[in-house]
Amino acid sequence: MTELSKSGAAVGEPTSTSPAPTSFLEVRDLKVHFPTDDGLVKSVDGLSFTLEKGKTLGIVGESGSGKSVTSLGIMGLHTAGQYGKRKARISGEIWLDGTELLSADPDEVRKLRGREMSMIFQDPLSALHPYYTIGQQIVEAYRIHHDVDKKTAKKRAVEMLDRVGIPQPDKRVDNYPHEFSGGMRQRAMIAMSLVNNPELLIADEPTTALDVTVQAQILDLIRDLQKEFGSAVIIITHDLGVVAELADDILVMYGGRCVERGPADKVFYEPRHPYTWGLLGSMPRLDREQQERLIPVKGSPPSLINIPSGCAFNPRCPYADVPKDNVTRTVRPELAEVGSRHWAACHMTQEQRERIWTEEIAPKL
Amino acid sequence: MTTQRTSGRRKQALAAAAAVAGLLTLAACGGGNDNGGSSSGAAGFDAANNKVAQADQVKKGGTLKFVSTQDADFWDTTRGYYGFMWDFARYYSRQLLTYKTAPGAEGAKLTPDLATGMPEVADGGKTYTFHLRDGITWEDGKPITSQDVKYGIERVWAQDVLSGGPIYIQQMLDPNNTYKGPYKDTSKDKLGLKAITTPDAKTIVFHLPKPNSDFEEVLAMVSASPVRQDKDTKAKYTLHPFSSGPYKFQSYSPGKGLVLVRNTNWKASSDPVRKAYPDKITLDISSNQNDSDQRLINGDYDIDASQTGLGPQARQIALKQHKGNLDNPVSGFIRYAVFPQTVKPFDNIHCRKAVIYAADHVSIQTARGGPIAGGDIGTNMLPPSVAGGEGQKYDPYQIAGANKNGNVNLAKQELKACGKPNGFSTTIAVRNNKAQEVATATSLQASLKKAGINADIYQYDGSQSSGIIGAPANVAKKKLGIIIMGWGPDFPTVQGYGLPLWDSHYILQSGNNNYAMIKDKTIDGLFDQYTATQDEAQKTSIATQINHKVSEGAYYLPFTFERLLNFRSSRVGNVYTSNAYSGYYDFVNLGLKSTK
Amino acid sequence: MGHRKTSGGPRSCGGPLAVLAYLIRRLFAAAVMLVVIILVVFCIFFLVPKWAGVDIASSFVGKQADPASVAAVREKLGLSDPIFVQVWHFFKGIFVGRTYAAGGDVTHCAAPCFGYSFRTEQDVWPVLTDRFPVTLGLALGAAVLWLVFGVAAGVLSALKRGSLWDRGAMVIALSGVSLPIYFTGLLSLAIFSYGLGWIDGKYVPLTDSFSGWLGGMILPWVTLAFLYAAMYARITRATMLEILGEDYIRTARAKGLKEQVVIGKHAMRSTMTPILTMLGMDLGALIGGAILTETTFSLPGLGQAVLNAIKTQDLPIILGVTLITSLAVLIANLVVDVLYAVIDPRVRLT
What we know:
By secondary structure, chain B is α+β, with helices and mostly antiparallel strands. Helices cover 28% and strands 17% of the residues of chain B.
């Protein structure tokens, strides 16, 4: 364990067996389990990844794959505000800029929230407090971490609203969330998230609740802001299309685990996991005819209480019988390197996957 | 003439409140013991029942504190009809005659008040002449004149403005109601009532068209008090009556409370009756009987002004811990069932007797609250406190004797004689706002069933009595064969009690009280004889005869000669019950033992 | 994008003028409502007895009324007029006063005349104004107590959901809701007033003595507050639990707000909405007279006045208190609606 200074930088030598990482964000073997009456829900079950400043990671998966739980885990929001309910069990390590968050004092983590790391939520209407003006909410976010008077904070809020492209920001700052359109609200939400210049921005399905034209604008905005602020960004989505142009790296989650991870190009053009293939097949593309139906991944996501033995994807995988000896149903595949900085967890051989991808999948996309 | 003079409501117990009783008892154990027991100075149980308690310990001064769960109907002497108001009104009003300030039966005797002596009666009882005392004054110091007395009495005629109050005096002086009251009086001095003349300021003469031997009792009612014309605020007089007595109104807020202070212009030398011990008299109206009972027991108050007895919870506590502060006098009230002869088969005396024999009188007494809270088993229809009443000594149906638990055999014999050997069906009418009456109805119903008499119980809105059971047509239509009621005397004579109940002339189409529809020439004749008789002994004897006639007719099933259970604080002295006020304490001469 | 709303500078619930217009409209509606209530109450009090064959006039006259004096009283009260004439006299009386005349006696009831009680020979209006402060003091004092304790208990229960505290508090709340006021009232009197003697418990007007007033009011307040605090605790708990699951609470935490601020500011603000609605309704009803509480503690408020009036069939007082009650409920409704708009900017005052 490390002792923390206020800035979050490690002081002295780490006493833990695992040394402090060199990456800006490193998640090691993160497990988030929720005890329920029906059993233990393993929402995240051993997830690891790294992220550098100025880079964007896309975490992709269906709902229930553990994406959002991961992001809330990083933010420390599983432990904050858990009243009376059976608490989430979290293990592993989350290193942010040299600070291990899971073992840190919760109040220290709270001080990091909103300043070092901030978050954009899926539905800006429900994520903004309906009873406070946009300005009040941004001012509050700013003043938690900056000892300034309200006037200064409000100036900052107007500035941020202007920055995220809200017209007449000096007037709109006094509007309530319900007086904004959906896209405007998300812009305001982004303004609030960035008001403290966070080094890590987590965007959880930032465009899902918005219509298509607005989606692109918001994604452009996030990209521009990232360039401007140089933050690390995690974009969480069920839609590969969202991260196609934005992400440097892509992490595909299934059943609480990572099934494929690698640079965006690799994952898009040389995917090595059947689930990724399925996601690519279901991705809407601009060059595709409107009438053509998207091909969703058949079947439904696994129960997180009774995760299928072997490969969690095996019940839905059309190639489950390709490996011999029924191994897909008995042995859990580990992430294996399939290329430079490119990992996938599949029992099929590299060759089998290469062949299927190039011969069966890619031509149809 | 009313049953509503006192409210039986106080005896009503909320069912849920009863659940609290135990807890209250516990709590009272903690607090009550401190001021009970040795240092109490209480006079002892029944120490003031028909005798004077602690008269010698009384000092002048202090504040006497009354509490009541209800306000008077009116404090205007002309309009008040509640029994406790008549008792209380002697503080601020005087009459030509009043009742002696003496315990028990002696208290029902008359004594001169404003008058110098008892009246000179002439003309065979048709003329009464009074002379007024010297030194009698109003609260502003002006003398009380015979004109003031006449004017006060004239106000009784103004029923359209001054509603409420008894009108006996109008019936006796002007039975045809020819006078229209002082407010419509065209004569200059507004003293146009011919039946009263005032030859001078100190003399007043009453001219009765027909003698009435109870006229003096009627003059002793507070409705015959003087009222001064220039102080008569008519309908609003009830808010601040102008005092002729030792105390005057300081403040009065209807439904909240009343404060009387000394009338400094009242001269003790002019008043042989009133002692006027306390300096101040307060009356608080409380809406919660439990609360006011507790405060009485705790010593915050001295006397319950409405004199209707402690509630069921406080009764238990007081009997256990403060018995020395209690009196258990017989009130003037009789509780009974009455059989309208217009409803078959009660036209037949044998069917009426069958009900009397079949009833379980002990269980009815229990339903009324038992011997202490309810009273003694009633055996006839004249209250023991009324002259001529014999109490349980006269028991023609052995109600308190052999048949006290009901006699089914005798009942069946009577049924056979009535032509209903297998019994019959009827209806018991009972007021729904009197818990004890409903309980007696249920008890009666159960015992009648054993003799084959099936009775339904009909509960009605007690405030609508006069239109429901007081309308003979309605009673006949609804076939109300048994009506449960209670009655007390307006003044302690057979006329003041029984005339409206038993005289055929008092059968009315609405507001009737002769529920039994008694049309007995003998009884009517006895009443005529009574009113024409001046001799007290003879009057008493006639009263007894009337009672016997009524009892023999089996029109009534008496339940109880009611008893009160009243609390007096350990602070008060010179305390006694009076037959003039139905067993209530005589308020006017109460005093405090300590003026602190 | 977003052009639909960009012009919406000012709050859409309107500026001061819009609010004023709204208030005027609502007050007008309340006045109309009040007139309707008066009509209905009139019908109930003056027509229904007629149908039931009960003569109101005779109930004013007393026991030994002869037909002539009943007729005179009927004339004086105007009971022989058609019902709409009676209503008209009543309305007129409110503004210009009213004169009752019969049998050589003239009684003037000064404006605002809400009728005249022939039981107690008083104008109704002074009775109402005399008793109203007592009831108001009772209701407001109790409201402060039950808000503080009820809401605090509800919030704590929500935060410690499922804990011993939560279960205990909810059991107490349930008993508070179920126990009738005359039980808890008598119990508190038995313990604190008669038993321990800590509190006298006798009502003293505020104008006489502040400490005496407090002493007389504390038990009624606590008793009444106990009943309501229980309800408020339950509502607060349920609402708070619902609010804590809202996305904007998560947002508040994601900002790095301290948990006290998240609960005390963000969650409480939302929780207050249903509580304020309830408070408005409850206060409105209580101001009309807390009959049981006032009876139990002998407080000379409107509730006791109306109870006495019912016992003595004092119709004008009943009518007056009914009107005050209706007015209180109407005003409470209005205040709640305005407050609602103040708390929740999404609500428009239209």
